[in-house]
Design a protein that fits this description.
The chain is mainly β. The chain has a single domain, classed as Metal Binding Protein, Guanine Nucleotide Exchange Factor, Chain A, CATH 2.170.150.70. The chain is 5% helix and 40% strand. It is globular and about 40 Å long.
Length: 139
């Protein structure tokens, strides 16, 4: 079981599943949404995500057709993204999780559009577009 929250603490959640391997995303949209050179995401089964507090603060933005980015309307912290094509999969922003996690980064994705001022200096595989190391399985 993991817990997490947004920056202001208005949104609090629990994750009742193990996190999938972490994808390090480098696309332009992710950089804009995170305000940094990359995003760290873990795909989880939506049934394992329990919103404890702050449903009224959740706001969704359709950043591209069929993809919504959900964030806190008070502090702006990104919470997760979800695609219409995979409604049972949430891509949680790993930086929100409070506890140490077992999942580790497995790949850099969308490196075709990475920012040139943040070099990728580890030995993880790099993919020019999307990569799905593992889709979460319903429990």
């Amino acid at each position: 079981m993991y817990t997490g929250s947004c920056l202001c603490g208005g949104i609090q959640f629990r994750i009742a599943r193990e996190l999938a391997p972490i994808e390090v995303g480098h696309c332009r949209q992710c950089r804009k949404a995170q305000g940094g050179p990359l995003a760290t995401n873990s795909a989880i089964d939506a049934a394992g995500f329990n919103l404890v507090r702050g449903a009224d603060l959740l706001t969704a933005y359709e950043s591209s057709p069929g993809k919504k980015r959900v964030f806190c309307s008070r502090c702006g912290a990104p919470i997760y993204s979800v695609r219409d094509a995979l409604p049972n999969v949430l891509r949680i922003r790993v930086g929100l999780v409070d506890e140490p996690i077992a999942a580790r980064p497995v790949a850099h994705i969308q490196v075709a559009s990475n920012c040139k001022w943040w070099p990728i200096s580890d030995s993880l595989p790099q993919f020019p577009a999307e990569y799905a190391p593992q889709q979460p399985q319903p429990a």
